[in-house]
Amino acid sequence: MKTMTCKQLGGACDATFSAETFEEMAELSKSHGMEMFQQGDAAHLAVIAQMQELMQSPEDMMKWFEGKRQEFEALPQD
Questions:
Q1: What is the Cβ-side half-sphere exposure of residue 72, based on CA atoms within 13 angstroms?
Q2: pLDDT (tens digit per residue) in 5-53
Q3: What's the total number of domains in the chain?
């Protein structure tokens, strides 16, 4: 099990998520982002807008995603 914060995953807050795999971690982060979007959280909405811009370039998005995967893999087990 590894733990990352919303900020470590490119988000806007210090909420923590724990998962066994990076894919699980990404899903937790995505769910959190959707919840914050529904609540209209301004800080998260700004980050979501940045992510939408990044997604315009599949190559840049893959580089960003792989960077987060590497960060996850480098973390020690909880």
A1: 26
A2: 999 999 999 999 999 999 999 999 999 999 999 999 999 999 999 999 9
A3: 1
Q: Are 68 and 22 in contact (CB under 8 A)?
A: yes
What 3-state DSSP class applies to 63?
A: helix
Cα three-residue angle 9-65-47, rounded to 5 degrees? 45
**Which domain, by its residues, includes 13?**
2-74
38 pairs with which residues across the strands? none
pTM of the model: 0.90
Rounded to whole angstroms, what are the CA distances from 62 to 13, 41, 56? 23, 26, 11
Residues 7, 1, 74, 37, Cα dihedral to 10°: -20
Distance in angstroms (rounded) separating the CA atoms of residues 38 and 65: 24
